[in-house]
Amino acid sequence: MNAHVLALEPLRALDHRGKPGRAEVEAAVRMIIRWSGDNPDRNGLIETPARVTRALEEAFVGYAQDPSAILQKSFDEIEGYDEMVVLRGVSFESLCEHHMAPILGRAWVAYVPDGRVVGISKLARVVEAYAKRLQIQEKLTAQIANTVDDVLKPRGVGVVIRASHHCMTARGVHKPESDLVTSRMLGCFRDNQQLRQELLGMIA
Ligand SMILES: [Zn+2]
């Protein structure tokens, strides 16, 4: 076994450790309720662990999705179309990876095709696949842009996300009016100031 293989061993061990089942997550929620000082067996709370677990399953559904695969089916009969294509303001819900608090936002996903386009609903599904994970907004923005760039190989990609973070608005520093804007520009969106301004102008 060479050094390279040895270095991979801890990762492989992690993969084999297995994922906890639903019953274990429900038990964990029950424990949180007990820890709060409330009684998980009273009527109002008896179904709560199951409900919270189902909600979390929904919040984490993105881990089971492959965003690159979503974009595989593309169309090349586009009559030389080479202007910007923009999915505007698609809304998403995510959970921040630092507090598991909601991130509620909208994403603008733009690209300039180079011979291939993809169904617009597929772009929305890529946003969803990355949003339904534990996230930070910066990473979410970059992942969406990088995936469109890698799979579609367009002339450029621009992704802008505007979102409010419950960990900022509802707790901690309590800034209910604030939102965070992040962007990632690749290819012609990075090089062409006018194109970038056109996209950013849609968000304001
Ligand atoms: Zn947070």
Overview of this structure, please?
With 204 residues, the protein is of the alpha+beta class. It is 45% helix and 23% strand. It is built from nine helices and seven strands. It has helices at residues 3-16, 22-36, 48-59, 67-70, 120-131, 137-152, 166-169, 188-191, 193-203, and strands spanning 74-75, 85-96, 102-112, 117-118, 134-135, 156-165, 180-187. Strands 5-2-3-6-7 form a five-stranded mixed β-sheet, with helices on both faces. It has a two-stranded antiparallel ribbon with strand order 1-4. Helix 2 crosses helix 3 (48-59) and helix 5 packs antiparallel against helix 6 (137-152). The protein is elongated and about 65 Å long. The termini are far apart. The structure holds zinc ion. Zinc ion binds next to loops.
End-to-end separation in angstroms reads 56 Å
Figure out the total of helices. 9
- Classify the beta-strand content into a percent band: 15-25%
Q: What small molecules are bound in this structure? A: zinc ion
Helix content: 40-55%
Overall average residue pLDDT: 90
In short:
By secondary structure, this protein is an alpha+beta fold. The chain is built from 9 helices and 7 strands, in the order ααααββββαβαβαβαα.
What is the strand and helix layout of this fold?
Elements: H1 3-16, H2 22-36, H3 48-59, H4 67-70, E1 74-75, E2 85-96, E3 102-112, E4 117-118, H5 120-131, E5 134-135, H6 137-152, E6 156-165, H7 166-169, E7 180-187, H8 188-191, H9 193-203
Parallel strand pairs: 2-5
Antiparallel strand pairs: 1-4, 2-3, 3-6, 6-7
Helix pairs in contact: 2-3, 5-6
This protein binds zinc ion.
